[in-house]
Design brief:
This protein is an all-alpha fold. About 80% of the residues lie in helices and about 0% in strands. The chain is globular and about 60 Å long.
Amino acid sequence: MTGYLLFKHAVQRVFRNLDDALAISGLIWIATMAVLILSSAIAPPLLTVDDWSAASPFARWINIGSNMTVIFVSIWIAVEWHRFALLGERPQTILPPLRRSHLVDYFVKSLLILLVLFGVMMAGLMVLMLLTALLGGFGAISFALVFVVLVFVVLVFYRISPLLPAAAMGEDMKLAAAWAATKPYTAQISQAAILLLMGTFAMQVLGILFGQGLFGLIYSLVTGWIALMVGVSLLSSIYELAASKADR
C-alpha cells in the first residue's frame, strides 16, 4: 500500500461511514464548539505568554477550561472512532459511551508520545545549535535543518502512533513494539502524513477567505471536524499496518 492509498483509505473511512461518524462525534463536537465560542466571547483566547501575563485570573481559568474541554472531547471522539474503525462498534445511543479506563489510558499514552517528541525535538535543536555555531551564524542551511528536525518529529509521532488506537481498544502496546511494527512502512507513513498536513494547511488557508463572521465560524466547525476525524482515521489505518506486520 502506498502512502497515497493509506491517506485515501483514511479519508474514505470517514465519508463512506458519514452517518456513523456524525452519530459518534457530531453532537458533542457542535456542543464543544459552542462552548469555545461562548468562552471566547467572555474572555479572549490567550495565545502568547504576554497575553497570559496580562490576563485576569478569571480569563486564565476560562481559557484553561475551554482548552481542557477540547482535549477531553477530542480524546472521547478518538476512542470511539478507533473502536468503530477497528472493531466495527457502531453507535447505539445519542451520545457515545464514556469508557473511562480507555480515555485515561489514551490520555496517558498521548502524554508519553508528547514526552518522546519533546525529547526528539530538544536533541534535534541541540544538534542544530552546534551546527549553527560551527557555520558561524543562522543562515539558509540552518533553516533547512530546522525543517528537517520538524519533519523528523512528525515522522516519529506517526511511527509510534499505534499506541493510541491500541489504548482505545484496551491493549497495552509498548513503545518499542509500535516503533518496530511500523518500521517496514516508514515511507508509506511519511507520505500519508505529508498529505494529511498539506490537506489541513490548505483548509486553513481557504478559511481566510471566509473571515471571522458566521460563515467563518461554520467553516471552522466543519473543517475542524474533518481534520479530527481524518486524522484519527489515519492513526487507525497505521495501526492496521502495524497489526498486519505483528501477525506475520
